[in-house]
Design a protein that fits this description.
91 residues, 3 strands, alpha+beta, Arc Repressor Mutant, subunit A
Length: 91
């Protein structure tokens, strides 16, 4: 994972709404309708946030007929966590 990819993920998770969405997705895939039920935002606002989470590849989207389903991309998350875990304070 390149530095620019790490920065995109950090920026995406730096927003409170996107962090709330990420926390919801930790339990497994969710339909956009279920995410909307738990947040006080409009559908266009949710689409904006999901685009950012998908663009940094932390979240995957699939369409099932007319519904969008979202889930954390565990492969990307594990690479990101490995990078963070390898970061040491050298004092």
């Amino acid at each position: 994972m390149e530095r620019k990819d790490i920065l995109k993920i950090l920026k995406a998770l730096g927003d409170d709404t996107r962090m709330q969405i990420f926390e919801m997705l930790r339990d497994g895939p969710l339909c956009a309708c279920k995410i909307l039920e738990n947040l006080n935002i409009s559908q266009p606002t949710l689409s904006h946030h999901m685009k950012i989470l998908c663009d940094c590849k932390l979240v995957k989207a699939t369409k099932d007929w007319k519904w969008m389903h979202y889930e954390i991309d565990c492969g990307i998350l594990n690479v990101f966590l490995s990078f963070i875990g390898d970061t040491k304070c050298r004092r």
